[in-house]
């Protein structure tokens, strides 16, 4: 009753059409779970079937001294908890102070990027944003380029760079570290650089200036899809202009320097997937030490 001709996509389309038309989806999932018992997508489907995700029971009909039905209890709905202490927000705002917009004047246009301030007034961004001392000398770094709580623009604080004092860059690792002219640390703090470990399934947040616009943060579907000693790949949203942004873990530790996105190869695989990518902060630390 099922046509198995054609390629895998056609075959599975025919299988799924049959099981859905005959209300056999549960049986198909059960059969696949025998060989793949830990598959998160299959488990999520079964969870959805077993649980009734409505708005909850009518509390007027629940006697205060009765046992609570297990189906009405709260629970973690994914593979890992996304609950965070409320201080996470305050710590994020503190970290955001050290993130700045980069502008570089060109002939009839302005190039934009992002970057962040670390100790000793050292500014970190990508090599493809600030490729050499001459480009860095033309750039302007703007802190507080953002909106207030009321939605009005905040007056930004500009700084120039001093590549003659310190400038280090790497094309392969796509980073540049350059000294800021002046004491930006005094007002905008710094992000610490220390070796960290990140793995697939972790969550990462990016504070950035996408498209050169006011400071923004990526906070949804921020799952790490791959990580090794050199790179971190993730689903966190970015745009052109986000290059050079710090990639944070849930403790607001910098784990990577964002540098690219699109259809990227995962090391060890032969197919490309839509992801964003950063250089591991461990590589940056090795490069500037």
What would you note in describing this structure?
- The chain is an alpha+beta fold and 289 residues long.
- It has three domains: 51 residues, no CATH class; 93 residues, Trypsin-like serine proteases (Thrombin, subunit H, Beta Barrel); 96 residues, Beta Barrel (Thrombin, subunit H).
- It is 22% helix and 27% strand.
- The chain contains seven helices and 14 strands.
- The strands form two sheets. The chain has a seven-stranded antiparallel beta sheet. A six-stranded antiparallel barrel has the order 1-2-3-7-5-4.
- A hairpin with a 6-residue loop joins strand 13 and strand 14.
- Helix 2 crosses helix 3.
- The longest helix has 14 residues.
- The radius of gyration is 24 Å and the shape is elongated.
- The chain starts with 7 loop residues before the first helix and ends with a helix.
- About 2% of the residues have low confidence.
- Belongs to the peptidase S1B family.
- InterPro entries: Peptidase_S1_PA, Peptidase_S1_PA_chymotrypsin, Peptidase_S1B, Peptidase_S1B_tx.
- Pfam families: Trypsin_2 (PF13365).
């Amino acid at each position: 009753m099922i046509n198995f001709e054609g390629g895998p996509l056609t075959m599975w389309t025919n299988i799924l059409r049959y099981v859905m038309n005959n209300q056999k989806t549960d049986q198909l999932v059960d059969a696949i779970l025998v060989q793949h018992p830990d598959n998160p997508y299959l488990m999520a489907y079964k969870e959805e079937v077993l649980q009734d995700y409505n708005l909850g029971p009518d509390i007027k009909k629940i006697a205060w001294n009765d046992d609570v039905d297990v189906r009405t209890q709260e629970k973690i709905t994914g593979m890992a908890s996304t609950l965070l202490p409320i201080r996470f927000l305050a710590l994020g705002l503190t970290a955001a102070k050290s993130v700045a917009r980069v502008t570089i004047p060109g002939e009839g246009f302005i190039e934009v990027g992002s970057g962040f301030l670390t100790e000793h007034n050292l500014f970190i961004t990508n090599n493809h944003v600030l490729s050499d001392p001459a480009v860095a000398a033309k750039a302007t770094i703007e802190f507080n380029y953002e909106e207030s709580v009321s939605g009005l623009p905040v007056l930004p604080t500009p700084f120039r760079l001093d590549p003659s004092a310190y400038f280090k860059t790497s094309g392969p690792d796509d980073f540049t570290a350059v000294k800021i002219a002046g004491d930006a640390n005094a007002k905008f703090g710094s992000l610490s650089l220390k070796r960290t470990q990140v793995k697939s399934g972790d969550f990462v947040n990016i504070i950035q200036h996408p498209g050169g616009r006011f400071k923004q943060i990526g906070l949804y579907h921020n799952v790490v899809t791959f990580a090794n000693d050199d790179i971190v790949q993730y689903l966190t949203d970015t745009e052109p202009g986000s290059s050079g942004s710090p990639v944070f873990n849930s403790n607001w530790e910098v784990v990577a320097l964002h540098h690219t996105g699109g259809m990227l190869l995962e090391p060890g695989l032969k197919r490309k997937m839509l992801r964003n990518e950063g250089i591991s902060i461990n590589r940056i630390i090795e490069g500037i030490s």
